[in-house]
Please model this.
Amino acid sequence: MNLVERIQAILLKPRETWATIAQELSDTASIYSGYLVYLAAIPALAGFIGLSIVGMDMFGVSYRVPIVAGLANMVVGYVLSLVMIYVLALIANALAPTFKGERNLLNALKLIAYGATAGMLGGLFNLIPALSLLSVLAALYTVYLIYAGIPVMMKTPADKALGYTAVLILCGIVAGLILGAASAMLTGSGARMAGMMGQGDSGRGHATIKIPGTDITLDGEKMEAASRRMDEAQARGDTAAASKAASEMLGAALGGAGGKPFEPDVLQGFVPDQLAGLARDSVEARSDEAMGIRFSSVNATYARDGRSIELAIQDIGAAPVLVMAMGAWSKSTVSRETAEDVEKVYRRDGVAIKEEYRKDGSHAEIAQLLPNGVMFEVRGDIDIETLRGALASLEVNTIAALKRPE
Model:
């Protein structure tokens, strides 16, 4: 299926096309080289033409962005949009178990890449700045495409797809703010962006930007320093150092780090051999890193006599963008009850707690986000009281007291 046929298929027959995409043998490189590099160019090029060549009228005054500045904005915006696709795929993959789905980074990348088709095509409206607001309509169809693709690509139950979609869209909006600010910094307009978005410090030619409603701060000095190291490494032909510097620059552009993550073996030390009387039958400890973001996690399963419990301990506190995505629920207070289900979100002793369970005792889930950024999640086909007891048996207070490594 060529590029045009794929675009037509995902826009006109999304549900059938998602099933086809799920079966395709592809990889990250082919998705980028065969699809994203072309789609992402549409809003970037259209924006340059619209703002620097066509121009816009405001209050009777015509204005055009200077050609050189427009070209710089086009190139940086194009690159950062490709980065944002991968970052949102990382977030979608990390969120999957929260919505009872399955982690699969390649499928998550397919979901975001092909789901973004309508929004990227909508960038054509930027050719005429007066019509640019119509791109919002295309973005709304992207929301639907992602919603339709989540059950297929991430194996999420249909009743969880809406919540999954809402969190991803929220992350996309905030990521857009972050990368927009990063683009402004890298093209020399960071100080103006700082003034628009919140607290800024443009002394010495640098800007520090606090993204509203998040714990994310962009440090222009760190971004510039990493960019300088990348240029120097490229000049001397040191590809390894250039790659590392590029990762550091992109990490800074995504909000930087909240501190070094706890090592996986540290987290694994809090995983018991038995939980709620069930024996542990599997455990996996790992550290993942991409685009300057690094986090650790441990997953374990327990089973006996047809009963099972899944335990996940994840250190998301080292990456503010992950806290924003995976811990978004911790900012809310919820009390919802139906004839079959109960959902609660509340805080106790500084710990954010989310509980969801069925009244017949057939399933329960509990998540706790500790003040130091470590998140416990337990779920199983058991009643809520048994699950609460299982969580209480873990050394939550001890891990909450851990200090991040220097």
User: Anything to note?
Assistant: The longest strand covers residues 278-290. The chain has 16 helices and 13 strands.
